[in-house]
Amino acid sequence: MAELDFRRARSNAVNITLDSDCKHSNLSLLDKNRVVSKTESKVSREVIVIANEGFSERKQYWEVEVGDRPYWELGVLTQDMRDKMKKEKFEKLPEGRYWSLQFSGGQYNCHGKSDKIASDDDKCPVVGIFLDWEDEMITFYNVELSCPIEFIHLEFQGKLYPFFNPGGDKQYLGVRPVNVSSPLTSL
Questions:
Q1: Which InterPro entries does the record cross-reference, listed alphabetically (predicted)?
Q2: Residue 58, phi-psi category: left (phi > 0), alpha (psi -120 to 50), beta (remainder)
Q3: Cys-Cys link to 32, which of 1, 11, 17, 104 (CB 3.0-4.6 A)?
Q4: For 117, phi and psi rounded to 5 degrees?
């Protein structure tokens, strides 16, 4: 059942591009889909890049290559939070609403959910993110295993933007294209 849910989620693939005007100054974009820290630095939550695309309805899915890096954070944030961060030049993470999956110290943590994540899977080189407005949920998938890592219920109306934090280890984090022949609506 988990693999079928994964395939169904993946059939809603969208293209994501990183916004060069909406990123922390310590980050460099290698192209429209890859980001890297300019210097090895202490991990900080506000060192992020935000996508050009925002979503407020239906279903969207995208994948991110995180490799074997020791820290990363992926998620979505509100348009209001995106606008504040852009205005304040990413100096601090403003109060606002965002939902994310973070990997640090060999453990997963979710922002937007209080439960601890129990996972034996400490190696997840590619994370799939499924934003489902119909079921009011964001689900994070281990793409190699075709199974969920965690999900978070969303109680929000408005536009959400994907964001990406590559950590401070000078390894790139990349949004990768997802090739799907047709949506799996009848499964």
A1: B30.2/SPRY (IPR001870), B30.2/SPRY_sf (IPR043136), Butyrophylin_SPRY (IPR003879), ConA-like_dom_sf (IPR013320), SPRY_dom (IPR003877), TRIM/RBCC (IPR050143)
A2: left
A3: 17
A4: -90, 120
Q: What is the pLDDT of residues 4-53, one digit of tens each?
A: 999 999 999 999 999 999 998 889 998 889 998 887 766 666 788 999 99
Q: Which residue type does 24 have?
A: H
The single residue listed with the structure tokens 């922002």 is 111
* 156, two tokens: 């929000």
CATH code of domain 2-176: 2.60.120.920
User: Where are any strands of DSSP class E within the chain?
Assistant: 18-23, 27-31, 34-37, 49-51, 59-65, 71-78, 98-104, 107-111, 126-132, 137-142, 147-153, 160-165, 173-176
Give the DSSP letter string of 56-91: -SSEEEEEEE-TT-SEEEEEEEEHHHHHHHHHTTTS
Q: How far apart are CA 60 and CA 150, in angstroms?
A: 16
- pLDDT tops 80 at residue 74: yes
Question: Distance between alpha carbon 72 and the CA centroid of its chain, in Å?
Answer: 9
- Rounded Cα distance, 123 and 121, in Å: 6
Q: Which two tokens stand for residue 176?
A: 């990768």
In Å, the largest CA–CA distance within the chain is 48
Q: Which of 167, 173, 169, 148 is nearest to 61 (CA)?
A: 148
Query: Which of the two residues, 66 and 41, has the higher pLDDT score?
Result: 66
